[in-house]
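User: Can you predict the 3D structure for this chain?
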Amino acid sequence: MVKAQKKSVKAGKLVNTEHVNRVIRNYKQERWVHNSKRLGKEDSLSVWYSVEELEEFLAKVKDHGGDGIKLYFGAYDTEHAPQPMYEGRQTVVLVATREKRTEHGLVDKDVYVNTGKETTILAYNVGKICPPMCTTDDGFGIGITIVDKGKDGIVVA
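Assistant: Here is the predicted structure, written as structure tokens:
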């Protein structure tokens, strides 16, 4: 018996340092500076996960029939922040998806799993956010930018 192999769909591509610096700089100037001002502290610029934990999550996604991951942008509230210094700061949530054909075409639907106690979305969160959990010498790593905050001065981010 011949098994049909599903063709892998790719939405992204490898990019270079110039691209990374440009999109991070754009983000800092257009969104981060405003978010930080509203929060009264520097908002997060990145979220870090180990390769091992990402591989474990990807294996779980595949085990449950998933074929992709959505990265949702989110923010921690006071009640659900994993630690007080994360309150109000941005994060990303990785959500398992599976492609489905609908009357509107192909869509990437979130994957739900039964844990025995409940049916819940298959998702991953609570990485190390920077700031405040920065591990580079300068505190920010790639994409160093001088952000003009107008009458509030400048910040190197």
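The chain has a mean pLDDT of 84. The chain has two domains: 14-43+132-157, 46-130.
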